[in-house]
Design brief:
Blueprint (H helix, E strand, L loop, with lengths): L1 E7 L7 H12 L3 E7 L5 H10 L2 E6 L4 H7 L2 E2 L1 H6 L4 E4 L5 E4 L2 H12 L8 E5 L3 H12 L4 E5 L3 H11 L4 E3 L7 E6 L3 H4 L10 E9 L4 H12 L4 E3 L2 H16 L6 H12 L1
Helix pairs in contact: 1-10, 5-6, 5-10
Bound molecules: NADPH dihydro-nicotinamide-adenine-dinucleotide phosphate.
Length: 270
């Protein structure tokens, strides 16, 4: 049976084993998927051991996405642009290919599951960490008109804008025209830290989306509703969609996601 795993530290919270077990059952693919807690300074060794024991692929989560970029033998364009790897594919000759499915997962959730229109739309992204880096190119590729970044530490947002060098990507400034889509890509909901959110950023009929999900997203979604967002969603759909993209990269089979999102939604309500 082909073996897959997610590597992180900590890893107990990861929903990936549950998601991939549901995908495998649904598609009839014979595989096992486990969670591996790698030492903080031992990601590369842990992955190489896993591959030596027959591992066919891996997901990578906090804090190893940069280590994964440095560990793989080849880097796909999405991972290069994101500066991070969340999916490792073990090629037939044993070489490791690194990819990043986070941004594809977000765009698929927005377009296919939630019916959010992206074409020519104005998007505000709050945050400038690894996840934000991963979603920007897929958003731009999906045809958005403009993306503006706002972040607690403005220099981090500025360095992303400089690195992308895309005329549609810039920094948010106060009193800009409001946005059609406001995405929260900070980890403030997870860490419980205080945050200042920009005022008056929602255009009429605008959508809000938090990359985090469940309780971690609650504060942002409440704020978005208070600010007049038409709809506000958490990132559970993105989580399942990025996993489906990894599954497809490994197995060449695309699982259906709606029932899996429903299962996960029930899980996090328990
Ligand atoms: P990083 O640690 O790389 O970045 C954290 C970002 O949050 C930085 O921009 C940081 O600002 C900002 N931040 C942290 N605390 C606060 C605060 N109290 N107030 C304001 N801003 C704050 O995290 P990631 O980019 O990896 O992850 C961000 C979020 O995305 C997490 O919630 C994660 O769970 C979620 N995610 C969801 C996925 C999904 O599939 N649904 C996939 C990947 C991530 P500064 O630059 O000032 O430090």
């Amino acid at each position: 049976m082909d073996r897959y795993a997610v590597f992180g530290n900590p890893i107990g919270h990861s929903r990936s084993p549950r998601i991939h077990a549901l995908f495998a059952a649904q598609t009839g693919e014979e595989l096992s998927y486990s969670a591996v807690m790698a030492p903080r300074d031992g990601f590369a060794v842990a992955v190489r051991q896993f591959v030596a024991r027959g591992g066919r692929g891996a997901n990578v989560t906090v804090p190893f996405k940069l280590d994964a970029l440095a560990t793989v033998d080849a880097v796909a364009p999405a991972a290069q642009r994101a500066g991070a790897v969340n999916t490792i594919i073990v090629e037939l000759d044993g070489r490791l290919r690194g990819d990043n499915t986070d941004g594809t997962g977000l765009v698929r959730d927005l377009l296919a599951n939630l019916g959010v229109v992206l074409d020519a739309r104005r998007v505000l992204v709050i945050g400038a960490g690894g996840a934000v880096r991963g979603i920007l190119q897929p958003l731009l590729d999906a045809g958005v008109g403009a993306v503006r970044l706002a972040n607690r530490t403005p220099a981090n947002a500025a360095s992303i804008v400089a690195a992308f060098a895309d005329p549609r990507l810039g920094l948010h400034v106060a009193n800009e025209r409001p946005y059609d889509l406001v995405i929260n890509g900070t980890s403030a909901g997870l860490t419980g830290g205080e945050r200042a959110l920009p005022e008056g950023v929602f255009a009429t009929g605008a959508t809000a989306y938090d990359l985090s999900y469940g309780a971690a997203a609650a504060g942002f979604l409440r704020w978005a509703n208070d600010q007049g967002a038409r709809a506000a969603y958490d990132g559970l759909g993105m989580l399942v969609e990025q996993a489906a993209e990894s599954f497809w990269l490994w197995r060449g089979v695309r699982p259906a996601t709606a029932s899996v999102i429903e299962h996960l939604r029930k899980d996090i309500q328990i």
